[in-house]
Amino acid sequence: MLQKYQHCLVSLIMAGGVVFCWLGYMYSTSLSPKSQRKQAMLMEPVRTDVLTVTPWLAPIVWEGTFDPQVIDEAFRSYNLTIATTVFAVGKYTRFLHALLESAEKHFMVGLNVQYYVFTDLPSHVPINMTLGVGRRLKVVKVPKFDRWQEISLRRMELIQTAIEEYIHQRANYIFCLDVDMIFHGRVGPEALGKLVAAIHPWFYWVPRSQYPYERRTISKAYIPQDHGDFYYQANIFGGAVEDVHRLTKTCREHLEMDKSAGVEAVWQEESHLNWYLWKNKPTKLLSPEYVWDDLRGQGAKEIKLVRFSSVIKNKAEVRENP
To answer: Of 63, 190, 270, 289, which is the active-site residue?
Structure first.
């Protein structure tokens, strides 16, 4: 019940501007032409250069579309816990310290955060690093995988199991992060919602026909041509614990069906994530500010603030296996 209220609260805060604009328009029809011009200036949306709401009326979070103080004040009285999963396997453990260090500065500051680090090298986890009040780190041992793709394929299964065994008792929300990422700016409760996905930074301006969906009908991740909404990146996704559990359970089942059929989706679990979010619309979308790629540089004029980005690396070297 509390979570339903929280979801409604965030939606009301972020939708309030839209309602305010509508009321302002209705009121302005009774004003003089001069007053109407002034009113119109006040009612102009903050961002007109980007899409800020989906066709199914879910907000898309960009810099300038929310007031951080209002959002923080709305959540201050709740004792929320955000479970945060990170997979650091093999050479990818080298990215873990920088991710956690930056998260302590920018990720859900002021809220309780429980990091779950899934790794085959527990001794490489910086368990002694200083964390903020209400923030904890738990190491979850996983086997070493033969192929880097196997890490991607197994992630949904491991998150589902962790939710069922202990996360569901300890957290209100969960976010699943890639380890080779860095926080640069605020990622706070404005990102919370029942089901949250991030728009891929390389595909938000291209036509849908160019999205790298799985197009083979033999795969459970198949999305037909001329279907789909956005292309989402698997570097960060989340939501209420029960909603993410449904997502991971479905994706795991579909991954296992593909494996039984001798099929591997074009982008492994990301392909299955996109299928799930096509069929089950996210209630909130994070703009590419929340999942930027450092290879894209800083030239995109619509990106006012890079909040979370993937680091530049030699993928062939860190992946170890072909």
So the answer is: 270
